[in-house]
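Ticket #208: bound-state structure for cytidine-5'-monophosphate.
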Amino acid sequence: MKSLPLVISIDGTSGSGKSTVSKRIAEILGIPYLNTGIMYRAVALWKKMGKDNFTYLSVVDDGVMINGNVISKKDLVGEDVGNLASVIAQDPEIRKRLVDIQRRWALSKGGVIEGRDIGSVVIPETENKFFITALPKIRAIRRMFQLGKKYVSEEDISKTLKEIEIRDKRDSNRTVSPLTIPKGAIVIDSSFLSIEEVVDLILEEIVL
Ligand code: C5P
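RESOLUTION: The complex was predicted; output attached.
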């Protein structure tokens, strides 16, 4: 049997810092990185444009290519697209197609792969599974700074917090591949940790 390349799965809630941490780990180890959330986001926008089917999807440098059209990263980052993505992510057909692409990616070259169902469904056989979360209010504040806000008011925080909570609830309660702590995953609460501290914790645990 072909042995599994090094695959590090990083799952977690929205705004937990998992994308920044995942990218950093891939950079330090010099291995590929795949953000699976961006795929669900791209399919959500594709459907919003009135297009139904796709025959080809791949993550490219500046975004996601679907049927030869590049949907740019900057159109995919907003919380509104995140919400749309979590709605279409309930569809078992869409999940199956994206999970197939993600699994093939992991098996062919390995790397750091982040999402909601990576250690539970996409590549459950990896030894390196992590689950990152943080207190909801902290995730809301991080999310706003990530989206470019310079200052945040209490009102902004509660609005974003509500959106994040709705999204997490939908992701955790869906029937197919819900957001869950994968069996055997190391859980990290990043609420009071810096990015570098989370990265170091993960690097210490990786089994090469
Ligand atoms: O990670 P990100 O916030 O970009 O993901 C957007 C949405 O895509 C999530 O809220 C979730 O509903 C969906 N998603 C998923 N499975 C993944 C990655 C993302 O269902 N592996």
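RESOLUTION NOTES: Helices lie at 18-29, 37-48, 79-88, 92-109, 118-122, 136-146, 154-173, 195-205.
TICKET STATUS: resolved
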